[in-house]
């Protein structure tokens, strides 16, 4: 853990502080102020992302520092989209998710710019990472909805929002195509770069497992509907657990050494 | 019928959960072992079972055929499964037995500059797996590097007791402050090949001839009170800390090796004594010819005289790719487009 005494670091800490204040404002019931702060946080996050892009001169998706920075940025548009179009709320949680996502970028991962090694110089690099990071953020929102359902909270019908069980389902429906695209683009890229569309590498297997958890969720929910709503929710939370492992443990742990490992 | 549908659904759910657990198990094995695990006989049974379940799903649930999204998702899975089985080692053997084709599923080919090669080797580079019906000639092998940047300048990295990280260009005379009231650090001398000579019991430090075997830098640390002492920092012995108990972690990087941007093999395909096609193979840009893909895999790191290409057969590949397309279109239709279209329709009707 290290503090970044750089302009990049400063920008990230600012975004975290603003997201967190937005969250606190939300908790205190100051919805309007919270919304404005959230927007300000997003603008700063775009600045942090753009600054990084300018510095490394390629889209900043290469390492975990950059991926977390990007995830901390996409949370805002996703929040807005989900409320307006899908009737799924949870902005307060999103503000907190934004802060949490930026924490590893701010304090844990190194920000030293790296050149793109030959395997990453592919047009598939950008879409593969982009769909994955968006789907991960969406599935995190799904897990929050599921946790609220498990906690027995009632949805906010006044605000024109769907209930938490439905909210979870809508989030998974939004995220699943992106997750599928990520898996397939990765596989296609593997074929171009390494010669195999599937290498049985730990990272690949973990991402397959995460995807399968959601496939299981769909089938279970199709079979039983809302009869076992709590199990539906647990299923969505397990999906998020698998994603966190795919993103962090499978990349960083030496147990899962493979082509995708950033451990060395 | 209803009962049958229910049991098929249960089996599908079980099959999905089982595969989830098997994937996680495989992740602990590492890629090599996982590959043999998923190709082992019990797992082959599983793959067949899954395919049968999918087919049974189509037979029993009319919805899977009628709803375009659901059809594409499940047909896509089936196609990927079929393509994967067809392209596996066992699939190749089966094709050989049934159709008399002879294709090598996967291997390596080592080619020296100016020579043509057709024999495909196993992973150990000793066993020959077979010969291609054509040969590949290596005209030239090249490496391209990124241009050197400021980072390839020799540098001293300093981590202070408080955990602050500083960097200093390691050139004689360069210096940097360690922070308010903490003194400064100054580069006294740099060595490509640091050596200590003992002359009459007297130690002298020299910069030896020959290759840069022991790069080092001599620094002077000036305390706030004006007194100072010097320290050597060795690149190859980063943990070597001279007596000084100053809490400073110093490391020296004499020069970064230039980073490779690309590996390139200029090759030609020779069939019946004639050159039929040529291409520059790079990472991410394989050659495709005669039912095989050829990838840049490795090279002669010492002299750059040969290249190593990996060879994979394309059996089943297009089924897998077709399945991917179906699966992608299917999920997009089922979960996104269908809803967008019905929403737009609703909007149109006031
Ligand atoms: C193993 C045999 C399988 C059978 C018998 C089967 C059967 C079914 C059935 C009957 C449905 C319900 C469709 C509906 O009426 O809404 C369904 C939905 C679905 N299946 Fe499968 N399935 C199988 C495997 C798979 C696999 C391997 C996948 C992987 C992608 C998959 C993905 C889906 C998805 C995404 C849905 C949509 C669920 C929803 O709309 O909520 N299925 N499946």
Strand fraction of chain B = 35-45%
Into which percent range does the helicity of residues of chain B fall? 25-40%
**Biggest beta sheet attributes of chain B:** 4 strands, antiparallel
Q: Report the order of strands and helices of chain B.
A: HHHHHHEEEEEEEEEEEEEEEEEH
How far apart are the first and last residues' alpha carbons of chain A, in Å?
17 Å
Shape of chain B: extended
* Low-pLDDT segments, ≥5 res of chain A: none
Main beta sheet of chain A: none
Identify the biggest protein-protein contact and residues per side: A-B, 48 and 51 residues
Give the count of helical stretches of chain A. 8
- Number of helical segments with 4 or more residues of chain B: 7
Helix content of chain A: over 70%
Report Rg of chain B: 32 Å
Total domain units of chain B: 3
Task: Describe the protein.
The complex is a heterodimer of chains A (264) and B (350). Chain A contains eight helices and no strands. With 264 residues, chain A is an all-alpha fold. Chain A has two domains: 1-110; 120-264. The longest helix of chain A is centred in the last third of the chain and has 31 residues, at 164-194. Chain A starts with 6 loop residues before the first helix and ends in a 12-residue tail after the last helix. Chain B has 350 residues and is α+β, with helices and mostly antiparallel strands. Chain B is 35% helix and 35% strand. In chain B, the strands form five sheets. A four-stranded antiparallel beta sheet of chain B has the order 1-17-16-15, with no helix packed on it. Chain B has a four-stranded antiparallel beta sheet with strand order 2-3-13-14, with no helix packed on it. In chain B, a hairpin with a 5-residue loop joins strand 4 (155-159) and strand 5. The radius of gyration of chain B is 32 Å and the shape is extended. Classes of the chains: A mainly alpha (264), B alpha+beta (350). At the A-B interface, helix 6 and helix 7 of A face helix 1, helix 2, strand 13, strand 16 and helix 7 of B. Bound molecules: protoporphyrin IX containing FE. Protoporphyrin IX containing FE sits between chains B (8, 12, 15, 50, 53-54, 57, 61, 63-64, 70, 73-74, 77, 334) and A (215, 218-219, 222).
């Amino acid at each position: 853990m290290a503090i970044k005494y750089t302009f990049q670091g400063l920008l990230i800490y600012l975004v975290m502080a603003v997201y967190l204040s937005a969250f606190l404002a939300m908790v205190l019931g100051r919805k309007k102020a919270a919304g404005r702060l959230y927007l300000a946080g997003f603008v700063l996050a775009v600045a942090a992302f753009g600054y990084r892009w300018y510095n490394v001169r390629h889209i900043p998706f290469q390492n975990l520092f950059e991926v977390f920075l990007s995830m901390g940025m996409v949370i805002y548009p996703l929040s807005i989209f989900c409320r307006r179009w899908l009737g799924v709320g949870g902005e307060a949680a999103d503000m907190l998710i934004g802060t949490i996502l930026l924490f590893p970028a701010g304090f844990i991962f190194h920000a030293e710019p790296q050149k793109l090694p030959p395997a990453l110089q592919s047009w598939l690099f950008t879409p593969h990472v982009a769909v994955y990071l968006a789907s991960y953020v969406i599935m995190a929102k799904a897990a929050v909805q599921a946790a609220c359902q498990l906690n027995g909270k009632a949805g906010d019908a006044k605000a024109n929002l769907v209930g938490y069980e439905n909210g979870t389902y809508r989030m998974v429906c939004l995220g699943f195509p992106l997750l599928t695209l990520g898996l397939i683009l990765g596989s296609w890229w593997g074929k171009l770069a390494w010669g195999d569309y599937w290498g049985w590498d730990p990272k690949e297997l973990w991402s397959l497992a995460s995807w399968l958890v959601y496939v299981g969720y769909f089938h279970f929910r199709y079979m039983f509907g809302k009869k076992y709503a709590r199990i539906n929710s647990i299923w969505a939370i397990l999906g998020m657990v698998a994603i966190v492992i795919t993103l962090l443990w499978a990349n960083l742990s030496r147990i899962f050494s493979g082509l995708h490992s950033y451990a060395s | 019928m209803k009962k049958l549908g229910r049991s098929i659904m249960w089996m599908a759910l079980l099959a999905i959960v089982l595969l989830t657990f098997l994937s996680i198990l495989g992740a602990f094995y590492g890629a090599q072992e996982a590959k043999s695990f998923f190709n082992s006989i019990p797992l082959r049974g599983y793959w067949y079972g899954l395919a049968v379940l999918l087919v049974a799903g189509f037979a029993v649930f009319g919805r899977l055929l009628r709803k375009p999204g659901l059809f594409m998702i499940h047909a896509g899975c089936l196609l990927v499964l079929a393509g994967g089985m067809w392209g596996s080692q066992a699939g190749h053997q089966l094709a050989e037995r049934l159709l008399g084709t002879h294709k090598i599923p996967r291997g390596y080919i080592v080619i020296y500059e100016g020579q043509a090669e057709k024999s495909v080797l196993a992973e150990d580079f000793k066993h020959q797996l077979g010969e291609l019906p054509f040969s590949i000639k290596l005209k030239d092998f090249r490496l391209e590097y990124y241009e050197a940047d400021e980072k390839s300048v020799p540098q001293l990295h300093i981590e202070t007791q408080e955990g602050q990280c500083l960097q200093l260009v390691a050139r004689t005379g360069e210096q940097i402050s360690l922070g308010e009231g903490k003194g400064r650090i100054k580069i006294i001398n740099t060595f490509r090949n640091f050596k200590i000579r003992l002359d009459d019991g007297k130690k002298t430090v020299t910069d030896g001839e020959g290759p840069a075997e022991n790069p080092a830098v001599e620094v002077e640390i000036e305390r706030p009170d004006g007194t100072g002492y010097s320290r050597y920092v060795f690149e190859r012995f980063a943990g070597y800390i001279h007596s000084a108990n100053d809490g400073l972690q110093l490391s020296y990087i004499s020069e970064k090796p230039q980073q490779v941007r690309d590996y390139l093999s200029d090759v030609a395909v020779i069939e019946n004594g004639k050159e039929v096609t040529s291409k520059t193979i790079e990472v991410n840009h394989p050659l495709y010819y005669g039912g095989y893909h050829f990838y840049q895999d490795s090279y002669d790191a010492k002299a750059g005289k040969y290249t190593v290409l990996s060879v994979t057969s394309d059996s089943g590949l297009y089924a897998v790719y077709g399945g991917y397309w179906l699966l992608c279109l299917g999920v997009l239709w089922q979960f996104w487009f269908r809803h967008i279209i019905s929403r737009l329709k609703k909007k149109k009707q006031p």
